[in-house]
Amino acid sequence: MKIVELIIDENDEFNGVEAISIVENPAIEEDFVALKRQEEIKLAEIDSDKKILIGALLIPNKPIYRRNGEEEYYIYFSRDTVLRASQKYLKSGNQKNSTLEHQMNIQGLTLVESWIKEDMVHDKSVKYGMEVPVGTWMGTVKVDNDEIWNEYVKTGKVKGFSIEGYFADKAESPQEKGIKDSLSEQEEAQVLIDKLKDLFKEDDDPCWEGYEMIGYKMLDGKKVPNCVKIK
To answer: Where are the domains positioned within the chain?
Structure first.
């Protein structure tokens, strides 16, 4: 089974994320947080719904299983590609492009906040208990569609975000292709396992550059990595 890195082809204007879909089973396996009530008392609007969704839009170096007919494979996005995708999405003015389960265009959903997670302690995602790696594209979506909010969000029919768009495959070098062609099925399977381990290993490093993780600490009642500056 092969692993394919997807990238953005800068020479192709159609490459990138076109829309954000709300789905029941996100491929990146991260649910969003639905903010239903005002966190602060504000005059008579104490009981009004915020109708805001916060969640991961794209996680770097996370193997995502795909199947096309009889062919099975994994895809993943590097940190650089995740960053480029987030920037191009906003530059293209696609903040209002939304779909339901990648099947139906819907109105009233707008990406109102977008950021890349830079550390495991101070990032906004930590406040909502979302354990995603550094480099993750996070987003806040405002839902101005009562039908979607009441029938899909509040009922739990949709649980997370999923992107849709066009990406290019990163081509294998001739050397990589030659090695792959010479492997047996058992050896190729081991190469796949090793490559998946490498991807997860990179994601497991929770600290930013110049820091190392030394155990855990408690922050606002939650267990978070203790990142200490490397001496």
So the answer is: 2-229
Q: Check pLDDT > 60 for residue 172.
A: no
Mapped onto helix, strand or coil, the DSSP state of residue 102 is: coil
Coarse DSSP helix, strand, coil percentages of the chain, rounded to the nearest 5 percent: 25, 40, 40
What are φ and ψ of residue 113, in 5° steps? -150, 135
Nearest to 136 by CA among 7, 28, 36: 28
Residue 159 has pLDDT above 80, yes or no: yes
Q: For residue 180, give every residue at least 6 positions away whose Cβ sits within 8 Å of its Cβ, in sequence order, or none.
A: 172, 188, 191
Q: Three-state SS for 11?
A: coil
User: Is the Cβ–Cβ distance between 83 and 60 less than 8 Å?
Assistant: no
* 41 pLDDT tier (thresholds 50, 70, 90): very low
What CA–CA distance (Å, rounded) separates 28 from 123? 19
Q: Are residues 43 and 207 in contact, defined by beta-carbon separation less than 8 angstroms?
A: no
- What is the C-alpha separation between 85 and 208, in angstroms, rounded? 21
Tokens of 112: 């109102």
Q: What is the pLDDT of residue 13?
A: 82
In sequence order, what are the residues at sequence separation of 6 or more whose Cβ sits closer than 8 angstroms to the Cβ of residue 66? 72, 73, 74, 75
